[in-house]
Task: inverse folding
Protein backbone atom coordinates (compact mmCIF):
# COMPACT_ATOMS: atom_id res chain seq x y z
CA UNK A 1 0.00 0.00 0.00
CA UNK A 2 1.49 3.38 -1.03
CA UNK A 3 2.19 5.95 1.69
CA UNK A 4 0.31 9.13 0.86
CA UNK A 5 -0.89 12.46 2.20
CA UNK A 6 -3.68 14.56 0.69
CA UNK A 7 -4.10 18.32 0.56
CA UNK A 8 -7.23 19.94 -0.82
CA UNK A 9 -7.32 23.00 -3.06
CA UNK A 10 -10.61 24.53 -1.91
CA UNK A 11 -12.43 26.06 -4.87
CA UNK A 12 -16.06 25.12 -4.16
CA UNK A 13 -17.37 22.58 -6.66
CA UNK A 14 -14.02 22.73 -8.51
CA UNK A 15 -12.03 21.69 -5.41
CA UNK A 16 -9.45 19.00 -6.02
CA UNK A 17 -6.98 16.83 -4.15
CA UNK A 18 -3.19 16.93 -4.32
CA UNK A 19 -2.03 13.46 -3.33
CA UNK A 20 1.63 13.35 -2.29
CA UNK A 21 3.65 10.26 -1.53
CA UNK A 22 5.93 7.46 -2.56
CA UNK A 23 4.84 4.36 -4.50
CA UNK A 24 1.85 6.02 -6.17
CA UNK A 25 2.96 4.98 -9.68
CA UNK A 26 2.28 1.43 -10.90
CA UNK A 27 -1.36 1.68 -9.85
CA UNK A 28 -0.60 2.84 -6.28
CA UNK A 29 -3.36 5.45 -6.62
CA UNK A 30 -6.51 4.90 -8.67
CA UNK A 31 -7.04 8.00 -10.82
CA UNK A 32 -9.88 6.61 -12.91
CA UNK A 33 -12.42 8.32 -10.62
CA UNK A 34 -11.10 11.66 -11.87
CA UNK A 35 -11.65 10.70 -15.52
CA UNK A 36 -15.30 11.53 -16.24
CA UNK A 37 -15.54 9.70 -19.58
CA UNK A 38 -14.23 6.47 -21.03
CA UNK A 39 -10.99 7.85 -22.51
CA UNK A 40 -7.94 9.94 -21.77
CA UNK A 41 -4.94 11.32 -23.64
CA UNK A 42 -1.71 11.17 -21.65
CA UNK A 43 0.66 13.91 -22.77
CA UNK A 44 4.33 13.60 -21.83
CA UNK A 45 7.63 14.34 -23.52
CA UNK A 46 10.37 12.33 -25.18
CA UNK A 47 12.46 12.25 -21.94
CA UNK A 48 9.79 11.42 -19.38
CA UNK A 49 7.64 9.06 -21.46
CA UNK A 50 10.25 6.26 -21.64
CA UNK A 51 10.75 6.50 -17.86
CA UNK A 52 7.22 6.69 -16.53
CA UNK A 53 4.48 6.41 -19.17
CA UNK A 54 4.14 2.64 -18.88
CA UNK A 55 4.18 2.95 -15.07
CA UNK A 56 1.12 5.18 -14.84
CA UNK A 57 -1.10 3.14 -17.14
CA UNK A 58 -2.33 0.94 -14.22
CA UNK A 59 -3.44 4.14 -12.42
CA UNK A 60 -6.17 4.50 -15.11
CA UNK A 61 -7.63 1.03 -14.92
CA UNK A 62 -10.57 0.50 -17.30
CA UNK A 63 -9.97 3.65 -19.36
CA UNK A 64 -9.13 3.79 -23.07
CA UNK A 65 -5.75 5.53 -23.26
CA UNK A 66 -3.94 7.27 -26.09
CA UNK A 67 -0.54 8.89 -25.62
CA UNK A 68 1.56 11.68 -27.07
CA UNK A 69 5.23 12.53 -26.43
CA UNK A 70 6.14 16.16 -27.12
CA UNK A 71 9.66 17.41 -27.87
CA UNK A 72 11.51 18.27 -24.66
CA UNK A 73 12.40 21.76 -23.53
CA UNK A 74 11.24 25.28 -22.74
CA UNK A 75 11.99 26.28 -26.34
CA UNK A 76 9.07 24.02 -27.38
CA UNK A 77 6.57 25.69 -25.03
CA UNK A 78 4.78 27.23 -27.98
CA UNK A 79 1.40 27.45 -29.66
CA UNK A 80 2.78 25.12 -32.37
CA UNK A 81 3.48 22.39 -29.79
CA UNK A 82 0.07 22.84 -28.21
CA UNK A 83 -1.42 22.41 -31.68
CA UNK A 84 0.03 18.85 -31.77
CA UNK A 85 -2.12 17.96 -28.75
CA UNK A 86 -5.23 19.48 -30.31
CA UNK A 87 -4.49 17.63 -33.58
CA UNK A 88 -4.27 14.33 -31.74
CA UNK A 89 -7.51 14.97 -29.84
CA UNK A 90 -9.29 15.73 -33.12
CA UNK A 91 -7.68 12.76 -34.90
CA UNK A 92 -8.88 10.40 -32.16
CA UNK A 93 -12.34 12.02 -32.32
CA UNK A 94 -12.18 12.85 -28.62
CA UNK A 95 -15.41 14.22 -27.15
CA UNK A 96 -16.06 16.74 -24.45
CA UNK A 97 -15.93 13.95 -21.86
CA UNK A 98 -12.29 13.17 -22.65
CA UNK A 99 -9.52 13.87 -20.12
CA UNK A 100 -6.04 15.24 -20.77
CA UNK A 101 -3.35 13.97 -18.40
CA UNK A 102 0.00 15.78 -18.12
CA UNK A 103 2.96 13.57 -17.17
CA UNK A 104 6.16 15.57 -16.87
CA UNK A 105 7.62 18.85 -15.70
CA UNK A 106 6.16 22.32 -15.79
CA UNK A 107 6.56 22.65 -19.54
CA UNK A 108 4.43 19.59 -20.32
CA UNK A 109 1.94 20.57 -17.59
CA UNK A 110 1.52 24.12 -18.83
CA UNK A 111 1.11 23.13 -22.50
CA UNK A 112 -1.17 20.13 -21.87
CA UNK A 113 -3.27 22.16 -19.43
CA UNK A 114 -3.71 24.90 -21.99
CA UNK A 115 -4.77 22.34 -24.62
CA UNK A 116 -7.28 20.92 -22.10
CA UNK A 117 -8.58 24.45 -21.45
CA UNK A 118 -9.08 25.08 -25.19
CA UNK A 119 -10.30 21.75 -26.59
CA UNK A 120 -14.08 21.95 -26.99
CA UNK A 121 -13.91 24.98 -24.63
CA UNK A 122 -12.52 22.91 -21.81
CA UNK A 123 -12.12 19.24 -20.93
CA UNK A 124 -11.01 17.51 -17.74
CA UNK A 125 -7.34 17.64 -16.84
CA UNK A 126 -5.08 15.71 -14.44
CA UNK A 127 -1.54 16.61 -13.43
CA UNK A 128 1.18 14.03 -12.70
CA UNK A 129 4.22 16.28 -12.14
CA UNK A 130 7.66 14.67 -12.30
CA UNK A 131 10.03 17.57 -11.53
CA UNK A 132 10.36 19.19 -8.12
CA UNK A 133 9.38 22.53 -9.66
CA UNK A 134 6.19 21.09 -11.11
CA UNK A 135 5.39 19.24 -7.86
CA UNK A 136 5.67 22.34 -5.68
CA UNK A 137 4.32 24.94 -8.05
CA UNK A 138 3.22 24.57 -11.66
CA UNK A 139 0.90 21.57 -11.26
CA UNK A 140 -1.17 23.35 -8.62
CA UNK A 141 -3.37 26.38 -9.14
CA UNK A 142 -4.60 26.13 -12.72
CA UNK A 143 -2.26 28.48 -14.58
CA UNK A 144 -1.70 27.00 -18.03
CA UNK A 145 -0.12 28.44 -21.14
CA UNK A 146 2.71 28.83 -23.59
CA UNK A 147 5.39 31.39 -24.39
CA UNK A 148 5.23 33.91 -27.24
CA UNK A 149 8.36 35.22 -28.99
CA UNK A 150 7.46 38.54 -27.34
CA UNK A 151 7.37 37.24 -23.79
CA UNK A 152 7.11 34.43 -21.27
CA UNK A 153 3.72 32.73 -20.66
CA UNK A 154 1.88 35.47 -22.56
CA UNK A 155 -0.71 33.08 -24.04
CA UNK A 156 -2.74 30.98 -21.63
CA UNK A 157 -5.80 30.31 -19.53
CA UNK A 158 -6.80 29.44 -16.00
CA UNK A 159 -7.89 25.81 -16.00
CA UNK A 160 -7.82 23.82 -12.77
CA UNK A 161 -6.93 20.13 -12.77
CA UNK A 162 -9.33 17.51 -11.35
CA UNK A 163 -6.49 15.97 -9.35
CA UNK A 164 -2.74 16.24 -8.86
CA UNK A 165 -0.73 13.07 -8.16
CA UNK A 166 2.79 13.68 -6.85
CA UNK A 167 5.03 10.65 -6.53
CA UNK A 168 8.35 11.80 -5.10
CA UNK A 169 9.96 8.58 -6.40
CA UNK A 170 10.05 10.28 -9.83
CA UNK A 171 12.66 12.67 -8.43
CA UNK A 172 15.17 9.80 -8.29
CA UNK A 173 15.79 10.19 -12.03
CA UNK A 174 15.71 13.99 -12.03
CA UNK A 175 19.08 15.61 -12.87
CA UNK A 176 20.60 17.59 -9.96
CA UNK A 177 20.44 20.85 -11.88
CA UNK A 178 16.65 20.41 -12.27
CA UNK A 179 16.25 19.52 -8.58
CA UNK A 180 18.02 22.73 -7.62
CA UNK A 181 15.82 24.73 -10.00
CA UNK A 182 12.78 23.35 -8.16
CA UNK A 183 14.29 24.39 -4.84
CA UNK A 184 14.10 28.01 -6.00
CA UNK A 185 10.29 27.86 -5.93
CA UNK A 186 10.39 26.06 -2.55
CA UNK A 187 12.57 28.84 -1.11
CA UNK A 188 10.13 31.34 -2.62
CA UNK A 189 7.29 30.10 -0.37
CA UNK A 190 9.38 30.55 2.76
CA UNK A 191 10.50 33.99 1.66
CA UNK A 192 7.02 35.30 0.81
CA UNK A 193 4.81 33.87 3.52
CA UNK A 194 6.30 31.38 5.98
CA UNK A 195 9.39 32.33 7.95
CA UNK A 196 9.29 29.04 9.93
CA UNK A 197 9.46 27.10 6.65
CA UNK A 198 12.31 29.38 5.55
CA UNK A 199 14.20 28.48 8.75
CA UNK A 200 13.41 24.77 8.20
CA UNK A 201 14.94 25.07 4.71
CA UNK A 202 18.06 26.69 6.14
CA UNK A 203 18.53 23.58 8.32
CA UNK A 204 17.46 20.95 5.83
CA UNK A 205 18.96 22.09 2.52
CA UNK A 206 21.65 19.33 2.59
CA UNK A 207 18.94 16.67 3.11
CA UNK A 208 16.93 18.06 0.19
CA UNK A 209 19.96 18.12 -2.09
CA UNK A 210 20.62 14.51 -1.08
CA UNK A 211 16.97 13.69 -2.05
CA UNK A 212 16.15 12.30 1.42
CA UNK A 213 12.53 11.17 1.07
CA UNK A 214 11.24 12.55 4.40
CA UNK A 215 12.73 15.97 3.68
CA UNK A 216 11.36 15.97 0.12
CA UNK A 217 7.86 15.02 1.27
CA UNK A 218 7.88 17.78 3.89
CA UNK A 219 9.12 20.40 1.40
CA UNK A 220 6.61 19.37 -1.28
CA UNK A 221 3.75 19.16 1.19
CA UNK A 222 4.39 22.54 2.84
CA UNK A 223 4.88 24.22 -0.55
CA UNK A 224 1.61 22.76 -1.85
CA UNK A 225 -0.24 23.75 1.34
CA UNK A 226 0.96 27.34 1.04
CA UNK A 227 0.16 27.51 -2.67
CA UNK A 228 -3.28 25.93 -2.12
CA UNK A 229 -4.11 28.56 0.52
CA UNK A 230 -3.12 31.46 -1.74
CA UNK A 231 -4.96 30.02 -4.77
CA UNK A 232 -8.12 29.37 -2.71
CA UNK A 233 -8.06 33.03 -1.63
CA UNK A 234 -7.42 34.54 -5.07
CA UNK A 235 -7.76 32.02 -7.89
CA UNK A 236 -7.51 34.52 -10.78
CA UNK A 237 -4.74 36.69 -9.34
CA UNK A 238 -6.75 39.82 -8.73
CA UNK A 239 -4.62 40.50 -5.66
CA UNK A 240 -2.78 38.25 -3.20
CA UNK A 241 -1.88 35.46 -5.67
CA UNK A 242 0.63 37.84 -7.27
CA UNK A 243 2.97 37.22 -4.30
CA UNK A 244 3.68 33.81 -5.88
CA UNK A 245 5.52 35.78 -8.54
CA UNK A 246 8.25 36.92 -6.14
CA UNK A 247 11.44 37.13 -8.22
CA UNK A 248 9.55 36.35 -11.43
CA UNK A 249 9.49 39.88 -12.95
CA UNK A 250 13.29 39.75 -13.09
CA UNK A 251 13.34 35.99 -13.68
CA UNK A 252 11.03 36.04 -16.70
CA UNK A 253 13.11 38.89 -18.17
CA UNK A 254 16.26 36.76 -17.76
CA UNK A 255 14.61 33.81 -19.52
CA UNK A 256 13.33 36.03 -22.31
CA UNK A 257 16.55 37.98 -22.86
CA UNK A 258 18.85 34.93 -22.82
CA UNK A 259 16.53 32.81 -24.97
CA UNK A 260 14.19 30.22 -23.46
CA UNK A 261 16.02 27.23 -22.03
CA UNK A 262 19.43 28.90 -21.61
CA UNK A 263 18.90 29.42 -17.88
CA UNK A 264 16.32 27.13 -16.27
CA UNK A 265 13.17 28.84 -15.00
CA UNK A 266 14.13 28.12 -11.38
CA UNK A 267 17.63 29.49 -11.87
CA UNK A 268 16.24 32.70 -13.33
CA UNK A 269 13.76 32.98 -10.44
CA UNK A 270 16.58 32.42 -7.93
CA UNK A 271 18.64 35.34 -9.22
CA UNK A 272 15.38 37.31 -9.62
CA UNK A 273 14.49 36.77 -5.95
CA UNK A 274 17.83 38.24 -4.86
CA UNK A 275 17.20 41.25 -7.15
CA UNK A 276 13.68 41.68 -5.72
CA UNK A 277 15.06 41.46 -2.18
CA UNK A 278 17.64 44.13 -3.06
CA UNK A 279 14.80 46.34 -4.33
CA UNK A 280 12.82 45.77 -1.10
CA UNK A 281 13.12 47.96 1.95
CA UNK A 282 15.03 45.28 3.90
CA UNK A 283 17.99 45.18 6.25
CA UNK A 284 21.13 44.12 4.41
CA UNK A 285 21.35 41.13 6.82
CA UNK A 286 17.93 39.91 5.63
CA UNK A 287 18.99 40.18 1.98
CA UNK A 288 22.16 38.25 2.91
CA UNK A 289 20.04 35.57 4.59
CA UNK A 290 18.04 34.99 1.40
CA UNK A 291 21.19 35.12 -0.72
CA UNK A 292 22.82 32.50 1.54
CA UNK A 293 19.89 30.09 1.31
CA UNK A 294 19.75 30.41 -2.48
CA UNK A 295 23.51 29.83 -2.69
CA UNK A 296 23.20 26.82 -0.35
CA UNK A 297 20.75 25.32 -2.86
CA UNK A 298 23.42 25.68 -5.54
CA UNK A 299 21.48 28.38 -7.36
CA UNK A 300 22.70 31.65 -8.91
CA UNK A 301 22.52 34.79 -6.78
CA UNK A 302 23.64 37.12 -9.57
CA UNK A 303 21.86 37.75 -12.88
CA UNK A 304 23.56 37.20 -16.23
CA UNK A 305 24.85 40.22 -18.18
CA UNK A 306 21.83 41.91 -19.79
CA UNK A 307 21.81 45.51 -20.99
CA UNK A 308 19.51 47.83 -19.07
CA UNK A 309 17.24 48.62 -22.04
CA UNK A 310 16.63 44.90 -22.58
CA UNK A 311 15.74 44.45 -18.90
CA UNK A 312 13.25 47.29 -19.13
CA UNK A 313 11.74 46.11 -22.42
CA UNK A 314 11.32 42.54 -21.13
CA UNK A 315 9.94 43.60 -17.75
CA UNK A 316 7.49 45.92 -19.52
CA UNK A 317 5.74 42.79 -20.89
CA UNK A 318 5.24 41.37 -17.39
CA UNK A 319 1.63 40.41 -16.72
CA UNK A 320 1.64 42.42 -13.48
CA UNK A 321 2.16 45.71 -15.36
CA UNK A 322 -0.82 48.04 -14.84
CA UNK A 323 -1.31 51.39 -16.60
CA UNK A 324 2.22 51.05 -17.99
CA UNK A 325 3.57 50.91 -14.46
CA UNK A 326 5.85 48.06 -13.39
CA UNK A 327 4.76 46.29 -10.22
CA UNK A 328 7.03 44.13 -8.11
CA UNK A 329 6.53 41.61 -5.35
CA UNK A 330 8.73 42.95 -2.57
CA UNK A 331 9.50 41.78 0.95
CA UNK A 332 8.60 43.78 4.05
CA UNK A 333 10.64 41.21 5.99
CA UNK A 334 11.62 37.59 5.33
CA UNK A 335 8.30 35.68 5.30
CA UNK A 336 6.19 38.79 4.58
CA UNK A 337 5.58 40.05 1.04
CA UNK A 338 3.34 42.40 -0.90
CA UNK A 339 2.80 43.56 -4.47
CA UNK A 340 3.48 47.21 -5.12
CA UNK A 341 4.11 49.81 -7.81
CA UNK A 342 5.89 51.94 -5.25
CA UNK A 343 9.61 51.22 -5.32
CA UNK A 344 12.87 53.14 -5.46
CA UNK A 345 13.47 53.79 -9.18
CA UNK A 346 17.11 54.73 -8.64
CA UNK A 347 17.67 51.49 -6.80
CA UNK A 348 16.05 49.59 -9.69
CA UNK A 349 18.38 51.34 -12.15
CA UNK A 350 21.38 50.28 -10.05
CA UNK A 351 20.15 46.67 -9.80
CA UNK A 352 19.75 46.29 -13.57
CA UNK A 353 23.04 48.09 -14.19
CA UNK A 354 21.50 51.13 -15.88
CA UNK A 355 23.96 53.46 -14.14
CA UNK A 356 27.03 51.37 -14.87
P1 LIG B 1 10.69 21.11 -17.58
O1 LIG B 1 9.29 20.77 -17.70
O2 LIG B 1 11.41 21.59 -18.78
O3 LIG B 1 11.46 19.85 -16.97
C1 LIG B 1 12.84 19.94 -16.76
C2 LIG B 1 13.61 18.80 -17.46
O4 LIG B 1 13.48 17.61 -16.67
C3 LIG B 1 13.08 18.43 -18.84
O5 LIG B 1 14.15 18.09 -19.67
C4 LIG B 1 12.21 17.21 -18.55
O6 LIG B 1 12.07 16.37 -19.68
C5 LIG B 1 13.01 16.53 -17.47
N1 LIG B 1 12.29 15.67 -16.56
C6 LIG B 1 11.06 15.86 -16.03
N2 LIG B 1 10.81 14.96 -15.10
C7 LIG B 1 11.88 14.14 -15.05
C8 LIG B 1 12.21 13.02 -14.25
N3 LIG B 1 11.42 12.60 -13.28
N4 LIG B 1 13.39 12.40 -14.47
C9 LIG B 1 14.25 12.88 -15.42
N5 LIG B 1 14.01 13.95 -16.16
C10 LIG B 1 12.83 14.58 -15.98
O7 LIG B 1 10.92 22.24 -16.45
P2 LIG B 1 10.24 22.53 -15.03
O8 LIG B 1 11.28 23.18 -14.24
O9 LIG B 1 9.55 21.34 -14.51
O10 LIG B 1 9.11 23.59 -15.39
C11 LIG B 1 9.43 24.87 -15.85
C12 LIG B 1 8.20 25.46 -16.51
O11 LIG B 1 7.15 25.56 -15.56
C13 LIG B 1 8.43 26.84 -17.08
O12 LIG B 1 7.92 26.89 -18.40
C14 LIG B 1 7.63 27.74 -16.16
O13 LIG B 1 7.15 28.88 -16.81
C15 LIG B 1 6.53 26.83 -15.74
N6 LIG B 1 5.89 27.20 -14.47
C16 LIG B 1 4.54 27.26 -14.46
C17 LIG B 1 3.89 27.57 -13.28
C18 LIG B 1 2.39 27.55 -13.22
O14 LIG B 1 1.83 27.98 -12.22
N7 LIG B 1 1.72 27.05 -14.24
C19 LIG B 1 4.62 27.81 -12.10
C20 LIG B 1 6.01 27.73 -12.17
C21 LIG B 1 6.64 27.43 -13.36
N1 LIG C 1 3.53 30.37 -10.15
C1 LIG C 1 2.69 31.49 -9.87
C2 LIG C 1 1.26 31.16 -9.72
O1 LIG C 1 0.85 30.02 -9.84
O2 LIG C 1 0.47 32.03 -9.48
Result:
Amino acid sequence: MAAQQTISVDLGDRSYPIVIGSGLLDGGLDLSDFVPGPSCLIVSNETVAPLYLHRILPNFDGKKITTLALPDGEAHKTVATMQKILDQLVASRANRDTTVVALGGGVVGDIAGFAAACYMRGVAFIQIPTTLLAQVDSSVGGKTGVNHPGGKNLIGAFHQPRAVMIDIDTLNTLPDRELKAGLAEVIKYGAICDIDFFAWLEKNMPALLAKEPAALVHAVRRSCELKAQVVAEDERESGRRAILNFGHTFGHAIEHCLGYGEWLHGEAVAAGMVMAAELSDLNESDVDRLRALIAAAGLPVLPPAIVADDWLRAMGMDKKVQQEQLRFVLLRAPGDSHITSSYDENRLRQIIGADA
